[in-house]
Specification:
The chain is α/β, with parallel strands linked by helices and 375 residues long. Helix content is 41%, strand content 25%. The protein has helices at 43-52, 76-80, 92-111, 133-145, 168-178, 216-226, 232-242, 248-251, 260-292, 306-309, 311-317, 330-337, 346-363; strands at 2-9, 14-21, 30-34, 38-41, 63-67, 70-74, 116-125, 147-149, 152-165, 186-192, 197-203, 206-212, 299-303, 322-325. Strands 3-2-1-7-9-8-5-6-4 form a 9-stranded mixed sheet. Strands 12-11-10-13-14 form a 5-stranded mixed sheet, sandwiched between helices. The protein is globular and about 55 Å long. The model is unreliable at 368-375 (pLDDT under 50).
């Protein structure tokens, strides 16, 4: 039994695409998401949780893992039961190990893969952490060979590992479309995420890159610090629903006062703060872009969930060059997983990991011929 998995351990959501390979007829890839929270816990905490549960939730909603004598709650269980918070300062590559174990354990449980099988894994990291990919591979190989998921022991052989900087799935897709022309052009791949933004530049095929902690969370922190009692997740929902211009109806639920007139004032204040924070945010982002993207670039590939929020500004900023939005993968993703258009911006957020999955399946030589076609 073999499992193909591409994974993006994002700060707003862990996004995955996988395919189970066995002797049965061809199976299409599946989209799989988990909450981003992760927390180290004591074995006694897990034992106490298990003793008090009334039923057995789906594995992705009740994920805990143990490896190297350490226990972690992952995803929804970490968020709801253990009240974990997303720590934007922590390294994604270190957190990727328990997230991968939880994903593999959940998929294996759902599909009845058993406890010993082969895994081909492709993973995305921020450009600033991509240099740690060899250390990550060693850690993953050791952890996968001997870990437990929900107290069941697993031994998984990591047969193939591919690690790309964020945007890698998009650039691989775009380079395939451009063919030999790719190595004749100056191209920038720009990723706008929740925690980071990054630019990977290709000059006649030679690459260089940089990243900064200027994801949408930068702006949300500004709003949070200038208002009373707000949290990032509630602000993210209101900002996403409103789009470029804050609308009162989406911010009403954020007001905390019990009196109607004070609530109205609160909403007005939050909107004013959000409007100013957006201007400050774009000023920071555009200044960073001026320093890290050459003015004479032939085209830019733009992806990441925050890129939709900044789409008008980005179109104006790059009016002088060609823009490839998410390497034109959005419609492919929508059709592959039967997603409604613009569903919580999910389509845009998974284009990168989808492009990476396509690349992975074409690297794995043991796939049957019909499984090597594009998803």
């Amino acid at each position: 039994m073999n499992l193909l998995l591409s994974l993006d351990p994002g700060s707003s959501m862990t996004k995955m695409i996988y395919r189970v390979l066995d002797s049965t007829p061809y199976k299409p890839p599946e989209l799989f998401c988990m909450e981003p929270e992760l927390i180290a816990i004591a074995k006694e905490s897990i034992d106490l949780y298990k003793s008090g549960r009334l039923n057995s939730p789906n594995p992705e909603n009740e994920a805990w893992v143990e490896f190297d004598s350490e226990y972690y709650a992952v995803g929804f269980l970490a968020q709801k039961h253990f009240e974990a918070q997303v720590k934007l300062s922590e390294l994604k590559y270190e957190n990727a190990i328990p997230k991968v174990l939880a994903a593999v354990g959940a998929i294996a449980t759902k599909w009845g893969l058993g406890t010993s099988f082969t895994l081909s894994l492709a993973l995305l990291l921020p450009y600033g952490e991509w240099e740690d990919r060899e250390r990550l591979e060693r850690g993953l190989t050791a952890a996968l060979s001997n870990f437990s998921f929900r107290s069941q022991q697993f031994s998984v052989n990591l047969e193939c590992f591919e690690c790309m900087p964020e945007g890698g799935g998009l650039v691989l897709t775009r380079s395939k479309k451009l063919g030999a022309n790719f190595n004749q052009l100056s191209i920038a791949v720009l990723m706008f995420g929740f925690r980071d933004i990054s630019a990977v530049r290709f000059e006649r095929g030679l690459s260089s890159g940089s990243s900064a902690s200027l994801g949408l969370a930068w702006m949300l922190e500004k709003i949070k610090n200038r208002t009373s009692g707000q949290n990032l997740q509630d602000l993210l929902w209101a900002i996403h629903q409103s789009g470029a211009t804050p609308k009162a109806k989406y911010f009403k639920s954020l007001a905390r006062s019990k009196k109607a007139e004070f609530r109205a004032e609160e909403v007005t204040q939050i909107i004013e703060v959000a409007t100013m924070a957006r201007k400050e945010y774009w000023a920071k982002v555009s200044d960073w872009l001026k320093s890290h993207v050459p003015a004479n670039v032939d085209q830019v590939i733009i992806g990441g969930g925050t890129s939709e929020y900044l789409s008008n500004e980005l179109k104006a900023f790059f009016a002088h060059t060609k823009i490839s939005w998410a390497a034109e993968l959005e419609e492919d993703v929508r059709l592959a997983f039967n997603l409604p258009p613009h569903k919580d911006a999910l389509i845009l957020r998974v284009t990168d990991v989808y492009g990476l999955f396509r690349y992975l399946q074409n690297q794995v030589t043991y796939l049957p011929v019909n499984a090597l076609t594009d998803a």
